[in-house]
Amino acid sequence: MTLHLENRLLKRTKLGNLRTLKITQPMIDFSSNDYLGLARSPQLATSVFQEWQMHLSHLNGLGSTGSRLLTGNTLYAQELEEKIAKLHGYEAGLLFSCGYMANVGLLTAITNQESITFYDAAVHASTHDGIRLSRAKAFPFRHNDLEHLENRLKSCPSQGDRFICIESIYSTDGSMAQLPEISQLAREYEAHLIVDEAHAVGACGPKGRGLVAEHNLTAHVFAQVTTFGKALGTYGAIVLGNHTLKQALINFATSYIYTTTLPFQTLAAIKCSYDLFPEMDQERDHLQKLIQIFRASYPSFSMSHIQSVPIEGNEAVKHAAQAIVKQGFDVRPLMSPTVQRGHEVLRVCLHAFNTDDELAQLIHHIQFHGSHCYA
Ligand SMILES: Cc1ncc(COP(=O)(O)O)c(C=O)c1O
């Protein structure tokens, strides 16, 4: 081990935020991204198994054998992209191995030295990394602060293309972007809008198609990133947009070009999830009901299925989470540096399979153990 690494790890240990791997014990799940319960759904598992049996003989076997640009491409993958793009109302889509690689690939492929990227300060690490790897200039705007975004757009002219990166639902606190207003600003100031719908698709919008669809803004979105490892219960991601964007990604997105593509088993799971989730209105209605129950105790909290309860300080939030876990409820602390120091939170994810009673119990435990919470 180098001295530098030892020192960094020691510093983390002292700050109480050393990351370690743990096996998740069976508990009442208020933590995973499996918002609709599809990852645990026997119905999805059965239909995926049938899909494998139906198609496996036509395919290469278990491995995808290479990049899509070499031996990894299949008619199955192409048809799946068309099916997903059609459902979301876009011209085209390109599958990526995961959302992280989709954001990195997208942002590095579409920008050059003359481009400017404006991004909400709360975007996911994958967008930050994509911005860092791209050669574009980049300016953050304060989270959900439209005035700040407009000032940035006004004061940063560019010879090249301008992009605005946001999430429809932010992963750390569940806050929602003001999509119609941001889309309006993008049009006014000639910027291309990129929306990461990782936490929205499946869980909200008409037939679970997300918040861009709910606001009828598909035509004004340059690129939408949709991931399959959250409400869809599987794995992978797609970038949706027009044919030119797809062609650009195939040619310039290195996280797409230089990697082994998703294997058939995963593509089949994505396809089966897309057959199922649009029909899960009942589950989405129950999710909405749970959100209302949570907000009855915490009216100022988010309107989405992701809630975050402020408990300042890594030690305090860690102890509150541990005490609640001891009661059998899986909740996780979000500590610095994942969130800004002083903005530590207990993250609570609501799921279609959580009962009203489980949530009432959880709220009781949060109120009891999170003494710094506010309503
Ligand atoms: C907003 C957002 N975008 C992208 C990702 C990355 O997606 P994936 O887990 O498929 O790599 C995540 C994952 O946590 C996310 O929260």
Tell me what the structure shows.
It is a single chain. This protein is α/β, with parallel strands linked by helices and 375 residues long. It folds into 2 domains: 25-40 and 280-369, Alpha-Beta Complex (Aspartate Aminotransferase, domain 1); 59-278, Type I PLP-dependent aspartate aminotransferase-like (Major domain) (Aspartate Aminotransferase, domain 2, 3-Layer(aba) Sandwich). The protein has 14 helices and 12 strands. The protein has helices at residues 3-15, 42-55, 75-88, 99-110, 125-133, 146-155, 179-188, 211-214, 243-252, 254-257, 264-276, 281-297, 314-326, 356-369, and strands at 28-29, 92-96, 116-120, 137-141, 162-167, 192-196, 223-227, 237-241, 306-310, 329-330, 332-334, 345-349. The strands form 3 sheets. Strands 2-8-7-6-5-3-4 form a 7-stranded mixed sheet, with helices on both faces. A 3-stranded antiparallel sheet has the order 9-12-11, with helices on one face. The chain has a two-stranded parallel ribbon with strand order 1-10. Strand 6 (192-196), helix 8 and strand 7 form a beta-alpha-beta unit. Helix 2 crosses helix 11 (264-276). It is globular and about 55 Å long. 44% of the residues are buried. Bound molecules: pyridoxal-5'-phosphate (PLP). Pyridoxal-5'-phosphate binds at residues 98-100, 103, 124, 126, 167, 171, 196, 198-199, 227, 229, 237.
